[in-house]
Amino acid sequence: MAIDLVSREAWGARAPRGSYSTLTSTKGVKVHYTGGRVEPAIVDDHAKCVAMVKSIQNFHMDGNGWLDIGYSMVACPHRKVFVGRGPKHLPAANGPGLNSGHYAVLGLVGDSGLVQPPDAMLHGILDAIEYLREKGGAGAAIKGHRDGYSTDCPGDTLYAWVKKGAPRPGGGTGPADPPPAEHPQWPGRLLSYPPVMRGDDVRTWQVQMDKRGWTIDVDGAYGPGSRDVCREFQQEQHLDVDGVVGEITWDAAFEAPAP
């Protein structure tokens, strides 16, 4: 089944207060719930789902002071997927310092009222994940909001489903892992600065770091900016932090899982 998208125009979204920060890729997606009461009546009335998404946006913008609704996408009990901030835009719902790592997908269940996600909602969450992989460079990870952040979200029921691997209801499987990135062979020279080094091998490494979510100029020139990204990446991967792309750092860029 193709994704049943509810555009921002269709659900009556307010315009964001400013410009989104851009994401080119993420480690994956984090699943959320509302954290409050969700009236079970939304299961029988899609208009109530629309009203709920609008109220969440109002709370995020007027209560939290955010520029827009904090979620990338929202799935309702009718297997419809609302566009929140959408792909390639930084979400705000994962917690300080955690938003660039994962997109944020909300399922419209809460901690009272509707607490058990209907099968159609689980399908909708998975449809949203596949969409974010296709359109936003989302990686393979499917996590709960509580993974890495102190919260009850996405609730015990939804989190148990995530921990099982987020299977499709009815015995199907969740989204297939995205194909692994091509791993070109290390070119055999150390990329370092100073002086500025230029070449296709530099560009290949920069492209891969950009895909992993690092902010880097893909210009084929290994200068101070590339060196700084290299150092931060080496620290993240627990490698020797020397700012030099040798064989170990090169291989880690294409093979190492995101933390």
Describe the structure using short key phrases:
Lysozyme-like, two-stranded parallel sheet, 259 residues, Muramoyl-pentapeptide Carboxypeptidase, domain 1, alpha/beta, 14% strand, elongated, six-stranded mixed sheet, 2 domains
Could you say which overall geometry the principal axes of the C-alpha atoms support? elongated
**Helical coverage, percent range:** 25-40%
Largest sheet properties? 6 strands, mixed
Number of alpha- plus pi-helical segments: 7
Description:
By secondary structure, the chain is of the alpha/beta class. The protein has 2 domains: 5-163, 3-Layer(aba) Sandwich (Lysozyme-like), CATH 3.40.80; 197-255, Orthogonal Bundle (Muramoyl-pentapeptide Carboxypeptidase, domain 1), CATH 1.10.101.10. The longest helix is centred in the first third of the chain and has 18 residues, at 46-63. It contains 7 helices and 10 strands.
Secondary structure layout:
Blueprint: E1 5-6, H1 8-11, E2 26-32, E3 37-38, H2 46-63, E4 73-75, E5 81-83, E6 102-107, E7 112-113, H3 119-136, E8 138-144, H4 156-163, E9 197-198, H5 200-211, E10 221-222, H6 224-236, H7 247-255
Parallel strand pairs: 1-5, 2-6, 2-8, 3-7, 4-6
Antiparallel strand pairs: 4-5, 9-10
Describe what is shown at a glance.
The chain has about 260 residues and is α/β, with parallel strands linked by helices. It contains 7 helices and 10 strands. The protein has helices at about 10, 45-65, 120-135, 155-165, 200-210, 225-235, 245-255, and strands at about 5, 25-30, 35-40, 75, 80-85, 100-105, 110-115, 140-145, 195-200, 220.
